[in-house]
Amino acid sequence: MTALARLELTASGATSAITAGPDALVAQTASLADWVGGGTLFIVSAQPIRALHDARLDPLRRAIASNGGRCVELDVPDGEPAKDDVGEASRLWNAMLAAGGRRDSRLLTFGGGTVGDLGGFVAGCFLRGIAYAQVPTTLLAQVDAAIGGKTGVDLAGGKNTVGLFHQPVQVVADTHVLTTLDRDLLRAGLVEAIKMAYLLDLDLLARIERDLDLLLAGDVAALAPVVQGAAKAKVDVVLQDEREGNLRRVLNFGHTLGHAIEADLGYADLSHGDAVAWGLRFALRLSRRRALPRADADRLFDLIDRLGVPNLPPSVRAPTAVDRLLDLMQNDKKATLRGLVWVLAKMAGTHEMADDVAPDAVRAELAAFLAEPTARA
Amino acid sequence: MTALARLELTASGATSAITAGPDALVAQTASLADWVGGGTLFIVSAQPIRALHDARLDPLRRAIASNGGRCVELDVPDGEPAKDDVGEASRLWNAMLAAGGRRDSRLLTFGGGTVGDLGGFVAGCFLRGIAYAQVPTTLLAQVDAAIGGKTGVDLAGGKNTVGLFHQPVQVVADTHVLTTLDRDLLRAGLVEAIKMAYLLDLDLLARIERDLDLLLAGDVAALAPVVQGAAKAKVDVVLQDEREGNLRRVLNFGHTLGHAIEADLGYADLSHGDAVAWGLRFALRLSRRRALPRADADRLFDLIDRLGVPNLPPSVRAPTAVDRLLDLMQNDKKATLRGLVWVLAKMAGTHEMADDVAPDAVRAELAAFLAEPTARA
Questions:
Q1: pLDDT (average), residues A124-142
Q2: Which of A68, A71, B334, B364 could serve as a FRET partner for B107 with CA atoms 20 to 30 Å apart?
Q3: What is the ipTM of this complex?
Q4: Hey, is the C-beta of B89 within 8 angstroms of any chain A C-beta?
Q5: Three-class SS string for B21-86?
């Protein structure tokens, strides 16, 4: 069995201790209980994850109770609706205050990216910030969303448009919880792991290429080292650039068009991961116009082909979609006055930030891509 | 005429440049316009302050326009209702996004403490944080609220229970805007200045004692050095302790009971400043039970006597009020598991943090105080 990986991420003076692998939650129970002490732990989760895995928190609950502390359980709706505007956050803040929450209270998120993003935001603003821990339960959250301190909720005008950077004290990625994920959720996480592996860690990429069928089948022994490798790649990036001044943008590989596709579809019909998979194909095409060798591009095209990503819905492939997608990309919150910066591959394992891709070239490539999305450049 | 005071406050890696005195806004127009560059400045204000002073921002608007930038004007309701829960913040975030706000957009608050607290919170969470400046227009905001990076809104369960630390890039305290304040608003600011002067700066205390009648009459020549002195005292405290680990609690002098009185009255009938004035008298009584010499206590009692603070309403003086106020103090968000820490005076100019005041002693002193609030100990 894979040993636990232990990583540290220090940013803005705060340190996140990240533990990833089989039984990570068992291993961290004592330190989480110590951290809560005799105080209050707010556990933020959602019914579907409670139904599957809630008992995994029982040892922690017992340890806290035996320290004289207490747990207050808070549920949020399942999935992205929990992040609609700030209503759910407000409901949680009021509940925490009514339950006697104080500045030395703690919060723990137990769920996927939505629970983590919302719970982290709630912790970051409650009484001007209380400490929290992330216990991510999806592959996407374990390899990406739970690490790095980004928290937030959505406005009608855009995803994650309200939030803050608030580093969790601990991230506990217990790979045993991944056994209950379906293939769609596994693929969603793998896309983000592949995104990082392709630009940042070719050993991890080779492992994913080798084990892809096991990974898509939810084999925990295969997943654990991928979670650990992707977590390490993400930590290394955030360590160097917490606030997305520059390097952290590398994590946006495939996301510029991916976000636009999601927005154009009204966040329906295609998951975030699948939209990013299409965005990665487009980024490869733009990269091929520059330095990326064909063999290096093919390596990622091949891997994405094997993922079984659903087709792009017809509405985003209509000729009129080009203008809509270009507009959406221009309005991405990562855009600045100076325009879009594309994260592209120079070769497998090497990225470039390109702020000099001519708008006409983007338009032409996008039209060609939408006409034949599975074509390679 | 008083020269401008320029102070710098660095906390959490961010630096606030504070400019205080007559025509501070004129002096800072060029640097504020540079900061906005060719981008967007969201100006958050309220109708009453716009009616009195909006034209003072016109030179800044012109400078921004001539740089190719633009201003987007956003109004919030006047006074504390703007801070009720997160509805107003949500409205502003949606408006900012609809107006094309980006990560390199800026925000400027132009108003009293409410506008600053709400605007700072909105800036701190918009797209995970944009830079902002505070242009406080009340004495309370100039001497205290605008400095130090505390932002937030209220929940039904408590004031400033949702928010974050977000240091403004600039605080511009132009004392000319103080000419339109009425005596109640001047007194509210003076109470906070006196609180700091008594524990932190005896020269400032002597100045306030000497000039009190001019200060209460809104004499700008008298007010300017008091704003500067109090701002400097606050900066010195926050420099040493941004997050209220310890020293920043000194600013809570008079606030433990003051907050409880406000809450018990449902934030009606007595202003924050007046409640704090009564809280200061109570803190002096507790201090007298310990080390504070009578002459030192009398100095602050005398000054508060001269302020003309309205009487404590009968409802908070009823015998049943003692328990309610004790409960409210226990639930203050600054309380921790270890209980209340009182900020007391050892002598004028010297404070102590007392975590060993016996609950029975507090109860007895509170009962005596409520029976005869103007009595000295």
A1: 98
A2: B334
A3: 0.94
A4: yes
A5: ECCHHHHHHHHHHHHHCCCEEEEEECHHHHHHHHHHHHHHHHHHHHCCCEEEEEECCCCHHHHECC
